[in-house]
Design goal:
It is a single chain. The protein has 205 residues and is α+β, with helices and mostly antiparallel strands. It is 30% helix and 31% strand. It contains 7 helices and 13 strands. The chain has a 6-stranded mixed β-sheet. Strands 3, 6, 8, 9 and 10 form a 5-stranded mixed β-sheet that branches. Strands 2-12 form a two-stranded antiparallel sheet. Strand 8, helix 5 and strand 9 form a beta-alpha-beta unit. The longest helix has 10 residues. The two termini are 28 Å apart.
Length: 205
C-alpha cells in the first residue's frame, strides 16, 4: 500500500476532448491492465488520514453508510466545485485493482428502476441484495456545463466498501495541489488546462 508523492500523468483538456466520446454512456478513467483510478473528495480529517496511511478506513470514515466513487475526474470536479465545497476539500485519486473495479461494475444495480428488470419488485429485490449502486449522470465540462455524454458513479456499502477502503486499494494519490493549480484554468476552451489522462474502459463480461 503506497501513498503517491507525484500526481497522475496529465494531458491538456483540449487534446483529450477531441478523442473522448461525445454522447452515450462511457466509463472514462485513468487505467492500465492492472488498475483503475477513481476519485472521491473528503473533508480534511478523512482525506489526510488516507494520505498518511494509504488506506481509507480511519476513525472518521464511516463503513456503515454508502460511499460514492467516480472514475471521471471532471465529474468529480463538478461535484466538489473543484475542491471548494465544504466537506470536499481534499480530492484523492484511489488506485484500485482493475479486477475489483470491473466486478463492482458488473454487480452494480441501478439506483433507479429501469427496463433491464422485469418489474419494479424484481429491481427492489436486486437493490436489497447488492452492495453496489450505479448511476449514469450527465458529464460536465470544466466550467460545469452539462454534456450529452453520461458519466458513471458507483455507490458502495458493506463488504464492497470495506474492500475499497483497504484490501483492494493499491495507492492513495493526493490531488490537492493539482486541483488547486488547475482551478483557475477551468474554462471549457482554456488551452492551458491539464487533466489526468483518461480513456474509455471496456468492462469484460
Amino acid at each position: 500500500m503506497n501513498t503517491a508523492v507525484t500526481p497522475l500523468p496529465t494531458e491538456r483538456h483540449l487534446a483529450q476532448r477531441v478523442r473522448w466520446p461525445q454522447s452515450g454512456r462511457h466509463i472514462l478513467a485513468h487505467h492500465d491492465a492492472e488498475s483503475v483510478v477513481v476519485y472521491q473528495a473528503y473533508r480534511p480529517a478523512i482525506g489526510e488520514y488516507a494520505i498518511r496511511n494509504g488506506r481509507l478506513d480511519g476513525p472518521d470514515f464511516s463503513l456503515s453508510r454508502m460511499s460514492w466513487i467516480k472514475p471521471n475526474f471532471l465529474w468529480m470536479m463538478y461535484r466538489s466545485g473543484w475542491g471548494t465545497k465544504e466537506g470536499q476539500e481534499v480530492t484523492l485519486g484511489l488506485r484500485l485493482r482493475r479486477a475489483f473495479f470491473e466486478r463492482l461494475v458488473r454487480e452494480a444495480v441501478p439506483s433507479t428502476f429501469d427496463s433491464s428488470y422485469p418489474s419494479r419488485d424484481a429491481w427492489q429485490a436486486a437493490v436489497g441484495r447488492s452492495e453496489v449502486r450505479l448511476q449514469w449522470d450527465p458529464d460536465h465540462s470544466p466550467s460545469g456545463h452539462k454534456l450529452e455524454r453520461r458519466a458513471i458513479q458507483l455507490g458502495l456499502r458493506g463488504r464492497a466498501l470495506v474492500a475499497l477502503a483497504h484490501e483492494e486499494l493499491l495507492e492513495v494519490i493526493d490531488m490537492r495541489a493539482f486541483v488547486d493549480a488547475q482551478r483557475a484554468l477551468a474554462q471549457n476552451d482554456n488551452a492551458e488546462l491539464q487533466l489526468p489522462v483518461e480513456h474509455p474502459i471496456g468492462i469484460g463480461q
